[in-house]
Write a structure and sequence with these properties.
By secondary structure, this protein is mainly beta. Among the domains are: 203-447; 449-492, no CATH class. The chain is built from one helix and 48 strands. The two termini are 35 Å apart.
């Protein structure tokens, strides 16, 4: 019943989205070649009719409310400084000019860009890169020797794929730089590797507090592909319902490096990996010859043929280090929780973790986590995960930015220095967050599909950003469609404003 209702709701909103995109556009300002200065709302939308470049030594500022619409397969290259600074109520949109294949474009490409580049409250969509390597790399944003800040953005409906599987990074692809991606919604991208995010080659990116969902990789890393000789940090992200349909695997995250040759490590902390899938190996995480630090993650209900939770391939040296992590409720033909590739003596170091089926290692146990909810997967009492982790070199705060805490009245079974931390991405406190669907302000934003709508179907309930019920229609706007166990609901929030 719910599946049918959900499908009907999605179809309804899709129709409204198409109808909204067909509305007549105002006169456009045509741009191409070298661009700089200020693009203001009074001259919007800007139609890109050829290759566009912000040259070295120049700055382009794009103001709130501007739409940048591409009329062909053109790059938006940044060698200088780009500051696209939208607001929560009036974002900036980079998109195709009309819903035809010929208007898909080549993305924002930071190439040896100057310091100070930023995308804030932007929506970047309908990029298609399908050429030869390396041109194919990157969807919405590509970073080469560049370190922009991408914050509170929607990166969606992008494509990076060729016959040799060289594509990657539907939301962002980065190499030789230190970009920051935070509080973004990265969804519905289709690539070869790294459906949402991808790093390679001396990249020390920071990916924090993002929602990465419903992306597809044909080769590896449905949600993220953190690749060779890169040392990014991924923390506080929701990584859910991503898929890897072939190749190596890694429905949620792929961690790939040959540490003996490129001695750099990745840090993966305080993430939720939920309902990801891989046709072969590693429903939650696929780790390959990689010495990564995988601390305080919650890995639940992922699926694969081998290693529903974690798949490990190495030669028994430079082992991935897993601590304070929940690996439960995952499914696979072989190794529902953790699978060690048996062809070359693969090993993994797991300690102070709740592993379904058990796992040898200090402080490990096998106990149903007892989650308080199935949206944020917070811990509910009684849970064996409370005060059962170690404080040694593990995150002192949980995914909400809440200090890890010794819960009074709970047996202390953990390790390291007092206080003993909880296992998983959430810290259960006596006076902390009230259990429920809404996060604290510092946690990742949980969105659903962003659509245009002018009316609502009978029976749909509207809520404002505070969770208060809104009576009657609210008029045109942006709606976030979510589902609960009883009926579809629509949350109204102008995170990404659409005129």
């Amino acid at each position: 019943m719910m599946d049918a209702m959900s499908a009907a709701m999605r179809a309804f909103f899709f129709v409204l989205l198409v109808a909204g995109s067909a509305l007549a556009m105002p006169d456009t300002t045509q741009v191409s070649g070298n661009v700089s200065g200020v693009w203001g709302d009074s001259l919007s939308p800007y139609a890109v009719v050829g290759e566009a470049t912000v040259p070295a030594g120049e700055t382009l500022i794009i103001e709130p409310g501007v739409e940048v619409r591409f009329r062909g397969p053109y790059h938006f290259t940044v060698n200088g400084v780009l500051k696209a600074l939208g607001t929560e109520s009036d974002s900036i949109i980079f998109t195709r000019d009309s819903a035809i294949e010929g208007h898909k474009w080549k993305g924002i490409r930071f190439d040896s860009a100057a310091a100070g580049c930023s995308l804030v409250f932007c929506r970047v969509e309908y990029v298609k890169n399908d050429g030869a390597y390396p041109e194919v790399r990157g969807g919405a944003v590509y970073c080469h020797y560049s370190s922009p800040v991408v914050s509170h953005c929607a990166l969606c409906h992008n494509y990076s794929h060729n016959a040799n599987a060289n594509g990657g990074g539907g939301g962002l692809f980065a190499e030789y730089g230190s970009p920051v991606v935070e509080y973004c919604h990265i969804f519905d991208n289709y690539v070869d590797s790294g459906g949402g995010l991808c790093t390679l080659e001396e990249c020390s990116a920071v990916f924090r507090n993002n929602v990465i969902e419903d992306n597809t990789a044909t080769y590896s890393g449905g949600g993220m592909y953190l690749g060779v000789r890169s040392g990014p940090t991924a923390t506080g992200n929701i990584i859910r319902r991503n898929h890897c349909t072939g190749g190596w695997g890694g429905g949620g995250i792929t961690l790939w490096n040959w540490y003996a040759i490129g001695p750099v490590s990745k840090t993966v902390t305080n993430n939720l990996l939920y309902a990801n899938s891989a046709s072969d190996a590693g429903g939650g995480i696929y780790t390959r010859y990689d010495l990564s630090f995988i601390y305080n993650n919650t890995i639940v209900e992922n699926t694969a043929s081998r290693g529903g939770g974690i798949y490990v391939l190495n030669e028994g040296q430079y082992l991935p280090d897993v601590r304070n992590t929940i690996v439960y409720g995952n499914t696979a033909s072989s190794g529902p929780s953790v699978y060690l590739d048996n062809g070359n003596s693969s090993q993994i170091d797991v300690t102070w973790s709740d592993v379904e089926g058990g796992w040898t290692g200090t402080g490990n146990f096998d106990s149903i986590p007892n989650f308080a909810d199935t949206v944020w997967f917070r811990l509910g009492p009684p849970s064996r995960c409370i005060d059962a982790g170690t404080s040694d070199n593990t995150p002192s705060q949980d995914f909400e930015g809440q200090d890890r805490f010794d819960l009074p009245g709970v047996p202390n079974r953990g390790g390291g220095q007092y206080p003993y931390y909880d296992v998983g991405w959430d810290e259960k406190t006596e006076t902390g967050v009230v259990e429920g669907p809404e996060p604290r302000a510092s946690s990742p934003r949980l969105h659903a599909t962003i659509v245009r709508a002018t009316a609502l179907p009978h029976g749909v309930v509207l809520y404002d950003a505070t969770g208060k019920r809104v009576r009657g229609a609210s008029g045109p706007g942006v709606y976030f469609l979510t589902e609960n166990s009883e009926r579809p609901t629509v949350h109204v929030r102008r995170l990404t404003f659409v005129k």
